[in-house]
Specification:
By secondary structure, the protein is mostly helical. The chain contains 11 helices and 3 strands. It has a 3-stranded mixed β-sheet with strand order 1-3-2. Strand 2 (231-234) and strand 3 (239-242) form a beta hairpin. The radius of gyration is 21 Å and the shape is elongated. Residues 15-67, 68-118 form the Myb-like domain.
DNA sequence: AAAACAGGCAACCGCTGGCCC
DNA sequence: TGGGCCAGCGGTTGCCTGTTT
C-alpha cells in the first residue's frame, strides 16, 4: 500500500478523533449491547449512537466477523473445506457469496483459509493455485482424503451410537432452537446441479459413486446421520442440503459431536497432503 | 534463553454499485 | 440525471503467537 495514502487515511482518522486498530473488550461490549437493543441500522449512526470512537465501517466489520452471535469458530470441517473448494471452482474469489453457503462462517474467514491453507499448499507444490494442474491435484488427492476424514469421523462420532440403535432418530442439534431441515436439493438448485454426482463441469465436489475412498453403501445406511453432513446451506431456501442419498431421513440436525471434531487437529490441512511424500 | 522466522488472522483500505434526493 | 452517501466486497497489511535455530 502506498505510504502517502496510508498516512492520509490515518491523519483523517486522527483529525476526527477516531480510533483504529484492535478492538478492546469495552468497545466490543458497547457495540454488542447497542446492536442487541437497537438492531444494526446505518453503521455510521450505530458507531455514533453506541458511543464508539470508530467509523461505521470498522463497526460493521467487527460485528459481522467477530461479535455476531451466530459466528462459528474453530477449524473448518472437511465438509466445509469441500464446499469451499467446490464453490470456489464455480465462482472464484467471490468470498461473500461462498460464505452464504457456510452458515456461521464469514467471508473474511473463508478468504483467510484460502490464502493461508490452499494457496500455501499450491506454493509448496510449486504450482499456480488456480491452474488446471492444481485442480487436478485437488481432485485426485485432496478430495478423497477429505472424504476419508469424513469417513473416520463417521465411525468415531456417529456409528457406535448407530450400531447400538439402528433408528434414524436425529442426533442432537448444535443449536437446540434450530429447526433447519436437510433437503436433497440436487434437482432443485441449478447452481448446485453437480452435487448429486451427475456429470457436470464442476471439478471439485466429490462424486459419491466414483471417489475411490468414499464410504461404501452399507456404511451410508448405518451412518446415515453422519453422512448427511456431506452438504451445505442454501441461503435462498434457508435449508441445508446433503449430497445425494435421498432415501435416507428427510430431516436431520447437525450432530453435536460434529462441533467437537472441528476443534480436533486431525482436520489440519497439512496431513491431507501427505501424498507428496 | 533469546532472537529470528513463519503462519494465522483481525482489521484496514480503496473500489464499486445501489439508493436517495 | 447526476451527485453524495453508504454498505458491501475483495485485496492487502501488520500484529500476535507459536516454532525453529
Amino acid at each position: 500500500m502506498e505510504d502517502s495514502m496510508k498516512t492520509k487515511s490515518f491523519k483523517e482518522s486522527e483529525e476526527v478523533g477516531l480510533r483504529r486498530g484492535p478492538w478492546t473488550l469495552e468497545e466490543d461490549t458497547l457495540l454488542t449491547n447497542y446492536i442487541l437493543h437497537n438492531g444494526e441500522g446505518r453503521w455510521n449512526l450505530v458507531a455514533k449512537s453506541a458511543g464508539l470512537k470508530r467509523n461505521g465501517k470498522s463497526c460493521r466489520l467487527r460485528w459481522l466477523n467477530y461479535l455476531k452471535p451466530d459466528i462459528r469458530r474453530g477449524n473448518l470441517t472437511p465438509q466445509e473445506q469441500l464446499l469451499i473448494l467446490e464453490l470456489h471452482s464455480k465462482w472464484g474469489n467471490r468470498w461473500s457469496k461462498i460464505a452464504q453457503y457456510l452458515p456461521g462462517r464469514t467471508d473474511n474467514e473463508i478468504k483467510n483459509y484460502w490464502r493461508t491453507r490452499v494457496q500455501k499448499q499450491a506454493r509448496q507444490l510449486n504450482i499456480e493455485s488456480n491452474s488446471d494442474k492444481f485442480f487436478d491435484a485437488v481432485r485426485s488427492f485432496w478430495v478423497p482424503r477429505l472424504i476419508e476424514k469424513m469417513e473416520q469421523n463417521s465411525f468415531t462420532n456417529c456409528c457406535p451410537q448407530n450400531n447400538n440403535n439402528k433408528s434414524l432418530l436425529p442426533p442432537q442439534s448444535y443449536d437446540s432452537t434450530s429447526t433447519q431441515t436437510y433437503t436433497d436439493i440436487s434437482s432443485q438448485n441449478p447452481g448446485l446441479s453437480n452435487i448429486d454426482g451427475s456429470s457436470s463441469s464442476s471439478i471439485f465436489m466429490p462424486d459419491l459413486t466414483t471417489v475411490p475412498h468414499f464410504i461404501d453403501p452399507n456404511t451410508i445406511i448405518d451412518g446415515s446421520m453422519c453422512n448427511q453432513e456431506l452438504g451445505g446451506y442454501i441461503p435462498e431456501m434457508e435449508e441445508y442440503y446433503y449430497m445425494g442419498n435421498s432415501d435416507i431421513g428427510t430431516e436431520c440436525h447437525v450432530a453435536e459431536a460434529y462441533e467437537d471434531v472441528t476443534q480436533d487437529p486431525m482436520w489440519n490441512m497439512d496431513d491431507i497432503w501427505q501424498f507428496r511424500e
